Amino acid sequence: MKKKILYTLLVVCLPVLFSQAQTLRVPGSPYPLSAVPDSVFLTSENYSVSERVALQTLQGVTAQTKPAILRDLSGHRALIEKAGVKVNDSYYNNFPGLLGFFANRLSGYILCNQKDRSTNVAISLAGVMNAVAIPADIEQTAINAGLTRLLDARARDEAWALANYGTLFSKQIATYQQSSDDRVSFMGDYSAFTKAFQFWDSSPSGTIATSAYNRMNKGATFFGWGPEEYGTVEQLSLKSMSIIPSDWAANLSTLSNIPAKTKVFKQKEPVKPFEVKTGVHTVCFVITDGDNVQWLLGSHDNINNWNNPARAHVNLGWTISPSLAELAPTVYEKYVDNCLTTPDGRNVLIAGPSGKSYFFPGRMPDADLETESKLLNSYMKKADLRIVNIIDADDSDNDPSSYLKQDNIDALFTTVMVQTIPVVTDR
Questions:
Q1: 103 and 181: one domain?
Q2: Considering just the CA atoms, what is the radius of gyration of the chain in Å?
Q3: How far from chain centre, in Å, is Cα 151?
Q4: The domain containing residue 337 runs over which residues?
Q5: How far apart are CA 44 and CA 239, in angstroms?
Q6: DSSP, res 167
Q7: Distance from CA of residue 213 to its chain's centroid?
Q8: Contact call for residues 296 and 335 (beta carbons, < 8 A)
Q9: Exposed/middle/buried for residue 140 (C-beta within 10 Å: 0-12, 13-18, 19+)
Q10: Quick one: how far is CA 3 from the chain centroid?
Q11: Tens place of pLDDT for every residue, the chain, 427 residues?
Q12: Taxonomically, which superkingdom (predicted)?
């Protein structure tokens, strides 16, 4: 009898649980999902550079099961607390203690240098080997935590990692990330969480970059940022892929698994309808660069930009990444809630270039652009966006038909890149 009751409960409850999980990702989403945490450990930015390298991989690897760590950056604590996640600061300034707490969940550590190609190798391998990247100067911390060295990567580079472990990395997510400067402290958590190959190439058409592109599926999304805008975006577009600017982004492995309190995102309606006046030219002002996820995660929210109360008194469009609705739902919720709408003005969010992520539509094969546009349509509905800002190569045909077929897209704003310079068109 007990078995029968249990079976009945499972039959009834599983579809409900599944439908709830489904709401966190649109069909065809490239962004992985694990579980919603009840609580997370908060960590200070006073950790050393080497500790932050290790911390990122620890954060990402644990998030593969359920997020357990949040770096204390950009008001993220308040956002997840609003969503009902508790915050524990027991190891706020104690990385050795934090590593020791999670040691029994790890297979070991990968030794690397603090800021060079071996760091990218260790971050990449951490995600697929259930390990942490440990720069040599803090190896004793890992040993004290009871961890075993799995690999010494200090003399290795990304080409070696790809040649020896390439089959283990995600074919849907990759990270183009400089590891020889301060960017080494960012994006590593999401790379580890998604089992992404993290690499750097000083040329967007270089050997390592090309090898990274060629192993990915069509529709793959790259995070981080390349050495130059035009060349990087063009190379990805030609291979039916795209990029989300994010080389200074943190906490994505945690934020992407915490749903917003709002079940359905809804932008505010205008206080009074727009009045069309004859004989008057109407100018539309749009704030660009909203596809930049690291900007959206924190630095954008300051008195000179989004947090300026004067924006309530003018009609402004703000570009934003539709993918933010899945990559950081609580952050996206903040922007939707804080769109100021008064009798004097209205703030409206529109999709940043050139859809869910950045690519040149004119460089993408037509059939794949159709697929990308259909996926964008789902994100437009989820994020409650109606206008798309497109950036395209100057010599492409700029054919908007694949976008205009979508029922959640009302209008397009087009910009072209002419020899790396963006030019607003009148089309």
A1: yes
A2: 22
A3: 29
A4: 286-417
A5: 40
A6: G
A7: 18
A8: yes
A9: exposed
A10: 43
A11: 433 433 333 333 433 333 343 358 999 999 999 999 999 999 999 999 999 999 999 999 999 999 999 999 999 999 999 999 999 999 999 999 999 999 999 999 999 999 999 999 999 999 999 999 999 999 999 999 999 999 999 999 999 999 999 999 999 999 999 999 999 999 999 999 999 999 999 999 999 999 999 999 999 999 999 999 999 999 999 999 999 999 999 999 999 999 999 999 999 999 988 888 899 988 889 998 889 999 999 877 777 788 888 888 899 999 999 999 999 999 999 999 999 899 999 999 999 999 999 999 999 999 999 999 999 999 999 999 999 999 999 888 878 999 999 999 999 998 887 666 665 654 4
A12: Bacteria
Give the chain's domain count. Answer: 2
Read off the tokens for 288: 């660009």
> How far is the CA of 138 from the CAs of 72, 123, 135, 194, 403, in angstroms?
22, 15, 6, 25, 51
Do residues 60 and 196 share a domain?
yes
Residues 313-328 pLDDT 10s: 899 999 999 999 999 9
Query: What is the reported pTM?
Result: 0.92
Please report, for the domain that includes residue 352, its CATH number.
3.20.20.490
Euclidean distance between CA atoms 323 and 31, whole angstroms: 9
Nearest to 224 by CA among 240, 205, 200: 200
Burial class (CB in 10 A: 0-12, 13-18, 19+), 194: buried
Does residue 131 belong to any structural domain of this protein?
yes
- Indicate whether 20 belongs to any domain: no
Q: Give CA–CA dist 394/342, Å, rounded.
A: 38
Q: Is 327 within 8 Å of 352 (Cβ atoms)? A: no
Residue 208: half-sphere exposure toward Cβ, Cα within 13 Å = 23
- Do 170 and 298 belong to one domain? no
- Write out the two tokens for 394: 């100057």
Three-class DSSP category at 92: coil
Closest C-alpha among 138, 106, 130 to residue 192: 130
> Is 130 inside any structural domain?
yes
Q: By three-state DSSP, how is residue 417 classified?
A: strand
Calpha distance 127→188 (Å, rounded):
9
State how beta strands 345-351 and 341-342 pair: antiparallel
Phi and psi at residue 154, in whole multiples of 5°? Answer: -60, -25
Which helix (H) or strand (E) segment holds residue 123: the answer is helix 117-129
Same domain for 233 and 84: yes
